[in-house]
Amino acid sequence: MILESFQVGEGQRPTVLLHGFLGTGRNLRSLATAWSEVDKSRRFLLLDMTGHGTSPRLPPGATLATVAGDVLETARAAGLQGPLELVGHSLGGRVSLAASLRSPADVARVTLLDITPSPIPTQLSESGKVLEILRAAPPGAPDRRTMRTELTGRGLSGPLADWLLMNLEPAPDGTVRWRFDRESLAEFHGRVNGEDLWAALTRPGAKVRCIRGGRAHYVSDADLARMESLGCPVATLPDAGHFVHVDSPEALLRWLTAER
Predict the structure, then answer these.
(1) How far is residue 87's CA from residue 75's CA, in Å, rounded to a whole number?
(2) What's the domain of life for this entry (predicted)?
């Protein structure tokens, strides 16, 4: 399945940036632009993963491997050649690991942005809490302001509500409606959070690195120790939360551009 995508940079080193749950490729545009200015050798592909943004919806029973296959197919259709470097935030990181297991020859390296190969416990899933509020919201509204009020009234912060509103699209009757299928995303989220992806770090030739937010809880100290024991370097940005690319963009860029 070919996904919606765009490119940044004119180099030949193929690098795919994958957003988190409920996001789109646009979420990582600033990172791609800044990274491209520092490293002219790279060509970045940013896409809306399956079920997100303007890409096709998730098929029934979709897994991380399903989405990973769509990512790889899209990268090749976009003209990226040779082994790919996959950089994924949250869900995007887990899809990157799944891609390295599905097609090891196509993946040169995986970079995880605040996510673990371990199954994600329900109580630690911030995206799960956001999803429940999103599912409780109406399917549409007269305008974005009305939907924003709806979301903040249910407990979401203003910035988080504004981020979600990027997924609204105009309807023929002049209202706005959600672009994605909230129920299929909820079903997918519940299933893939339980996947164990440690095999992506133990397979022969695996090359993985990780950076975590010091104020986040997705990558535990136990995960850190296990990853490092398997040859996966892990760094911590002490002032960042889960959205490391938003909270500490300059520190993240320095870490990304330091070859490891």
Answers:
(1) 13
(2) Bacteria
